[in-house]
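Exam revision sheet. Question 4 asks you to relate a sequence to its structure. Input first:
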Amino acid sequence: MSPAAAPSPIDVLMLLWDAGNDGISLSGSAQALANLRSSGCVIEESPSGGGRTELQRVGLGCYRDVIEREAQRKSWRLGKSAHVYHRTSSTNDACLRAARSGINAGHDGFVAVADVQSAGRGRRGNAWVARGGQSVLLSVLLRVPNVEGVADRLTLLAGLAAAEAIDAVVGAPLAGAGGGGGVQIKWPNDLLIAGRKFGGILVEGRGDALVVGLGVNVAQNAAEFPADLRDHATSLYMMTGRQIDRLRIIVAILGVLDGYFRSALEGGQEEQWIARWKARCPMLGQRIKARDADGLVAGQVLDVDPLRGLLVRDELGAMRWLAAQTTTLSV
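Answer key, structure tokens:
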């Protein structure tokens, strides 16, 4: 009788992935573990015989395997095809290039992840700066018949999905951070913890291709932000004191996002997700300054309608709606 085949590295990786912080007892997997470590995975084995093995961090070289395996076994629309870049201009650009190419990567649900972006950008062309190993840089490609009709809705859904997923991954340390009660959403596309920005959403469309991009600060410390951002920016590490596996955040976001995309694009449940979105928006009652198509405006936010915009009472007492497409907040 021939001996049983040694388990493959990806099979061992998924066993460790599923076990999470509890770890798992493994035998006959020494070569697979060595291969995983060579791909950048951080794996701890208890020194005593028959001990448990724990996956502390997944190496970039294994991101694609985990994303595609999770997408297949959970029947996600997103992530069945993925590509991981050590460096690219931006993950949104990568998805748009894939959409134009006509190859398999250009299909609906394609996911692009990067360790570093050389030309990362936020809303209205603002730069997104991050060194390698510090951030979640993620974009997904959707094929939709009416890009203009759903782009704003997907900006909101992506923000809500990211907020819920990050809260779930990080747990109690984030829920109590600065008294902020977890991740909040600043209309229309910023993610906040205790009033400081740590993530953002950028949705772009070309033809029937709609790309939803997300950036999340994970591992930065304060000194690594540009001087003009240090009073306003933060990261998950700064707020929790923990280094969190970026892939855990990516997979959690894809899972929540997949569910919201199904409900939003296939119809239904709009009132429920809008209510959840508004519950995370801290802007009611705040005084703001903004620029819209008519110029500068300052006033108090009376209501936030995530699809219509902000209802503001300006300094002259007039009520004005500020639309997401044409408004930039300065405070």
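Marking note for examiners. The chain has three domains: 9-57, 60-279, 287-329.
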